[in-house]
Q: What sequence folds into this?
């Protein structure tokens, strides 16, 4: 155990001897004691080299012990060693002044014992050490927080620049497709070509919306829902049909008998569907089957609609399942050549939960994955959803 370095500042030879004997007789700890007789000498010694604790007499020739403490605070801000004040009487005013000036403890010369002296010095050292450790931790935490804020600001700026640059070519594509359709003579394009041009325009506009949504998600922003009466059967059928036209997979849409209308945000649910269907295609081999199920779950105070999207793909490792809805997380078994940002499922969960619904996943590695969304048909009278600011005002279907 390292010896504790003590500087005693006292002009009384008897007091210096008593302290030396008390420390030499300590059987549990080693002490290194130095002595000086004036505050000026003590000040020079403290500034010259590190010490663990200073034992200083209040009554000194010239500068008092309180004056020494105040001078130390001025010269060594944040680096003053532990200090224990010695007084010749039980004067409470002196004790209060000493503590205010920065001392950790005080001892009355006529009454303290050797054990009390050692405990006081050790406690003073421990107090200063803990105080400094806490201050260092606080400074490290503040530094880390500043660095995190700066990193987030840079990230947001980069995302904003990237989304702006991505939307430029999309706008050009949409504009030229619309211009081409208007400039070609009537009857030049057959029905299939006309439909493909229309698909280009719609896809470009949709991609622009998704880019805006990606920026919202990465910034942690939430836009309030715009509810309208919607037929989920029609929306799901449209999205499945669009996926069939571009993917090399077999799609099966199963619908149990029932009413699939409700008060939902169409654009929000489009994003959820596009993400779930897109993932099913992305993480399963061409020629495999993607199954979509719609069912009604009767309940009170409102019915719920269950939407399931199942694939026959690579599956998700069990250790990754609890994290699939976390932003920027991707499964460890995802091949490097499979693109993705890791924000899609986090966005899907947020949009589902804004509707008062739930989403969960079941998966077997190498055999496929099923995502299940449960949506209330509408909002109960007392239900509320968060707004963009994170508050929770009551809302009603619009």
A:
């Amino acid at each position: 155990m390292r010896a504790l370095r003590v500087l005693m500042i006292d002009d009384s030879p008897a007091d210096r001897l008593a302290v030396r004997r008390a420390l030499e007789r300590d059987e549990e700890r080693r002490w290194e004691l130095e002595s000086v007789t004036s505050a000026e000498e003590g000040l020079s010694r403290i500034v010259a080299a590190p010490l663990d604790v200073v034992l200083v007499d209040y009554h000194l020739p010239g500068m008092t012990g309180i004056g020494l403490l105040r001078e130390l605070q001025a010269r060594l801000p944040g680096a003053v060693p532990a200090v224990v004040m010695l007084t010749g009487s039980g004067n409470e005013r002196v004790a209060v002044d000493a503590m205010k000036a920065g001392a950790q403890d005080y001892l009355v010369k006529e009454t303290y014992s050797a054990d009390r002296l050692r405990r006081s010095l050790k406690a003073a050292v421990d107090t200063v050490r803990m105080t400094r450790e806490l201050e260092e931790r606080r400074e490290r935490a503040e530094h880390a927080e500043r660095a995190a804020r700066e990193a987030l600001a840079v990230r947001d700026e980069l995302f904003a620049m990237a989304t702006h640059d991505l939307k430029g070519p999309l706008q050009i594509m949409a504009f030229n497709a619309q211009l081409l359709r208007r400039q070609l003579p009537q009857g030049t394009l057959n029905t299939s070509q006309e439909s493909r041009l229309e698909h280009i325009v719609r896809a470009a506009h949709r991609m622009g919306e998704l880019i805006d949504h990606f920026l919202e998600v990465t910034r942690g922003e939430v836009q309030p829902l715009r509810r309208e009466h919607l037929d989920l059967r029609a929306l799901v059928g449209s999205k499945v049909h669009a996926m069939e036209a571009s993917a090399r997979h077999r799609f099966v849409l199963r619908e149990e008998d029932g009413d699939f209308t409700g008060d939902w945000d169409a654009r929000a649910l489009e994003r959820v569907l596009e993400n779930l269907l897109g993932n099913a295609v992305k993480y399963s081999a061409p020629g495999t089957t993607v199954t979509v199920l719609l069912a009604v779950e009767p309940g009170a105070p409102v019915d719920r609609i269950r939407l399931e999207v199942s694939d026959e793909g690579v599956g998700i490792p069990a250790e990754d399942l609890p994290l699939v809805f976390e932003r920027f997380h991707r499964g460890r078994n995802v091949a490097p050549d499979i693109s993705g940002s890791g924000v899609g499922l986090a966005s899907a969960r947020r949009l589902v939960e804004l509707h008062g619904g739930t989403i969960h996943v079941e998966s077997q590695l190498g055999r496929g994955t099923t995502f299940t969304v449960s949506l209330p048909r509408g909002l109960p009278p007392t239900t509320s959803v968060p707004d963009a600011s994170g508050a929770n005002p009551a809302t009603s279907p619009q």
Observations:
- Residues 114-183 form the longest helix (70 residues).
- The chain is about 45% helix and 20% strand.
